[in-house]
Amino acid sequence: MSDKQKGDQPTGTVNEGRRRFLAGSAAVGAVSMAGAAGVAGVGAMTRSQPARAASNGGAADTHVAPGELDEYYGFWSGGHNGEVRVYGVPSMREIMRIPVFNHCSATGWGMTNESKRIMGDSHRFTNGDAHHPHISYTDGSHDGRYLFINDKANTRVARVRLDVFKTDAMVTVPNVQAIHGLRLQKAPRTGYVFANGEYMIPQPNDGRDINDPSKYHTLWNAIDADTMEVKWQVMVDGNLDNMDADYTGKYAAATCYNSEGAVDLAGKMRADRDWVTIFSIERIEQAVADGNYMTIGDSDVPVVDGRKSSGLNVTRYVPVPKNPHGLNTSTDGKYFIAAGKLSPTVSMIEIAKLDDLFEGNLDDERDVIAAEPELGLGPLHTTYDGRGNAYTTLFIDSQVVKWNMEDAVRHWNGEDVEYIRQKIDVHYQPGHNHATLSESKDADGKWLFSLNKFSKDRFLPVGPLHPENDQMIDISGEEMKLVHDTPTFAEPHDAVIIRRDQIQTKQVWERDDPYFAETIRQAEEDGVNVETDNTIIRDGNKLRVYMTSVAPNFGITEIPAKVGDEITVTITNLDRIEDLTHGFCVVDHGVSMEISPLQTASITFTADKPGVFWYYCNWFCHALHMEMVGRLLVEPA
């Protein structure tokens, strides 16, 4: 490594403050990693480039002028907020928020009848913990059809349609708790969504064996991407953390940080090594086809036994340094790269050797390890530039390290070659990172984002709760250059970035869209044409109100009701003009929804008190927007 690459730390830079800030946490981390992880001497490798905003001259300026469009869509998970956030890259302008696992008063998500149907029984949960957004594939390239994301908090997986940027399907995965790692089948197309159940639980989890952790197990799950039904599950030894799939459609792999099956922190750190679980998709499918499966509890989902003792040979367990975390497939399709977390190394698993592993042609599972380069303290996640370089976040060192994969293999095989190209400070404690197009075979190596868990001293103070800090780094040249800080709320966690031409959106709804087809069918059962009729139907204490909206008018401006009535309001926005969205909000009733151009939307609520209650359009639509109102007239029962 050259002196320029090593980048001696100058006195008086931001790095002095950074090092003081990190001293306590780094010391704690180093103590927990020492001995078991073999970190002696790593400090000599952690000198880095000062993290200063600069132009690299390669990926071009981050400035996107007013009226100009960004080159990329960036999809950020909303973390504990349960949503997906959409940014333009490289401007980092927030364009849209997509409600997924949360409830949203702006759009009515979680309140409208359409969203409740999609969320199913889980709509009763108002929280979510959205972690890993991933975009569908055809032959290893993003096809822009769907985005999938998991909810760790309530064990769900959701699908977002990218033609309308709306969540259109959701499933609660049975027999597991806390969907964490989530990845998609990359080839020949995204037929499966693969999801990890992180926490081990009794099987079935019905109250028996709650005090016997030896009976705890978790499952790897395959969801049909088209129907959003759980197709099959695989029971494994240990737990499941992060995962990825290969570029052939044959294999997937997941890290395990709790091979001990412990239920306490100390127990989860006992073993000198944990493992990466390798899944043979073809062998699992064959086991299901042959009937070599069981079911658990009330679920009829086929469960294949992938534990070491099963003898089915659908999984293999590759030992790696203890408590690994992230697992990312290199964009050249050669390696699964598992980050060590409590080891300063990453483990490069050679995918080409997995056939021999499953066929029993190798002497040891470790024979698939191509290299285990030492990178620094606390490696968590790895991304790629498509030029043979990998970029790994170092949580304890608060750095991103750029390293060359083939040089790492050569070094592992005894050659005297330096594989680390550069380290750059980030602020602070990075988790996930993501480079443009780096989850596809089309990685272009322009921009990298480090999603940092802390932001102390980077932004205006806002009290005890600080924002996270997503930092944009130019990686188009030989040196990484920090170019932008983006404060974000409630731990976005992960991101995926694709070119804008890879997504084709609709600017107004099509009237035959399946999103509201069920609502149309219900109207037809009432003999109502939602595009022309403005009518109220009473059925006992149920009131069904059908109306149209054309700026600045609702088709019905008075709704007579009685206390206790269950009222369903269905509105069709007849405006065909792009960006002319209407809303429906009933004062003092907790009722609010969005109705975009040519959309039909409905919401159900109870008139629980007598009086006059105004409803109004809450999306600005017209010069007379304030006058677009009506009255709910509720008489005593």
From TrEMBL:
Bilayer-crossing regions: 21-45
Reaction(s) this enzyme catalyzes, per UniProt: N2 + 2 Fe(III)-[cytochrome c] + H2O = nitrous oxide + 2 Fe(II)-[cytochrome c] + 2 H(+)
Cofactor: Cu cation; Ca(2+)
Binding-site positions, Cu cation A2: C617, W619, C621, H625
Pfam family, one: nos_propeller
Matching CDD domains: N2OR_C
Binding site for Cu cation Z1: H325, H381
Keyword Membrane (UniProt): yes
Pathways involved: Nitrogen metabolism; nitrate reduction (denitrification); dinitrogen from nitrate: step 4/4
Binding site for Cu cation A1: H582, C617, C621, M628
Cofactor note: Binds 6 Cu cations per subunit. Each subunit contains 2 copper centers; Cu(A) (binuclear) and Cu(Z) (tetranuclear). Cu(Z) is thought to be the site of nitrous oxide reduction.
Residues in Cytochrome oxidase subunit II copper A binding domain copies: 538-637
Subcellular location: Periplasm
Annotated residues for binding of Cu cation Z2: H131, H180
SUPFAM superfamilies: Cupredoxins, Nitrous oxide reductase, N-terminal domain
Region described as COX2-like: spans on this chain: 541-637
Post-translational modification: Predicted to be exported by the Tat system. The position of the signal peptide cleavage has not been experimentally proven.
Keywords noted in UniProt: Calcium, Copper, Membrane, Metal-binding, Oxidoreductase, Periplasm, Signal, Transmembrane, Transmembrane helix
Assembly behavior: Homodimer.
Protein role: Nitrous-oxide reductase is part of a bacterial respiratory system which is activated under anaerobic conditions in the presence of nitrate or nitrous oxide.
UniProt name for this protein: Nitrous-oxide reductase
Species of provenance: Halomonas mongoliensis
Organism phylogeny: Bacteria, Pseudomonadati, Pseudomonadota, Gammaproteobacteria, Oceanospirillales
Recorded name of the encoding gene: nosZ
